[in-house]
Design goal:
- A hairpin with an 8-residue loop joins strand 1 and strand 2.
- The protein starts with 17 loop residues before the first helix and ends with a strand.
- Strands 1-2 form a two-stranded antiparallel ribbon. The protein has a two-stranded antiparallel ribbon with strand order 3-4. Strands 5-6 form a two-stranded antiparallel sheet.
- It has about 190 residues and is α+β, with helices and mostly antiparallel strands.
- It contains 6 helices and 8 strands; from the N terminus they run αββββαββααααββ.
- The protein has 2 domains: about 90 residues, Homing Intron 3 (I-Ppo) Encoded Endonuclease, Chain A (Alpha-Beta Complex), CATH 3.90.75; about 80 residues, no CATH class.
- The longest helix is centred in the last third of the chain and has 13 residues.
- The structure holds zinc ion (ZN).
- The site of zinc ion has 6 residues, from loops.
Length: about 190
């Protein structure tokens, strides 16, 4: 069987020398091991980070996985268990095939409700995380947007429930709640 030709972005892992690895991590917002560590450098249209080394560009999450575990089989893909494309936390990354990825997405319900819309980049879990973060008052909408790899208007729409009405985000800052669930966060998904 002939080996599949590696794609230009997905399958190449550039050099893993100490200097390059250090430069890579300097572009990642490293947090607690349970948090998503977001790529702060250039991004592809898909929301995935793009790490440039010489003439090659590597998907940031792929590089993150390789930086921790060593070179990756070109046939394999690095998948996010958190479903957050710009995330580079190795704890949230695993190896799999394209088929695994599609199965995972279906399992996580990315094919349902709001997440199906072409403009949507956020999962229901992320929407709830954003609402929680906003409720703490610690971050501005812009800071939250940067953290989740979306733009501020998306965060603003979301917090105003213009876009994500199927997820009850509580929105404690608006001061109104006519559903009797003020401050609570309930995904309104049918099981
Ligand atoms: Zn993550």
């Amino acid at each position: 069987m002939k080996a599949r030709k590696p794609g230009p972005l997905a399958t190449r892992t550039p050099s893993l020398d100490t200097k390059t690895v250090a430069r890579f991590w300097s572009k990642v917002a490293i947090g607690h091991e349970s948090e998503c560590w977001l790529w702060t450098g250039a991004k592809k249209d898909t929301g995935y980070g793009a790490f440039r080394v010489g003439n090659a560009t590597c998907t940031a999450s792929r590089y993150a996985y390789a930086a921790k575990h060593g070179p990756i089989d070109p046939q394999m893909h690095v998948l996010h268990s958190c479903d957050n494309p710009p995330c580079c936390n190795p704890e949230h990354l695993k190896l799999g095939t394209v088929a695994d990825n599609s199965t995972d997405k279906v399992k996580r319900g990315r094919h349902c409700h709001g997440s199906k819309r072409p403009l949507a980049k956020l999962t229901n879990e992320q929407v709830m995380a954003i609402a929680k973060l906003w409720a703490t008052g610690a971050l501005s909408q812009k800071e939250i947007a940067t953290r989740f790899g979306v733009n501020q208007s998306q965060v603003s729409r979301l917090l105003n429930r213009k876009r994500w009405r199927h997820v009850d985000v509580g929105a404690p800052k608006t001061g109104h709640c006519n559903r009797g669930t003020r401050g609570s966060i309930y995904p309104m998904e049918k099981q």
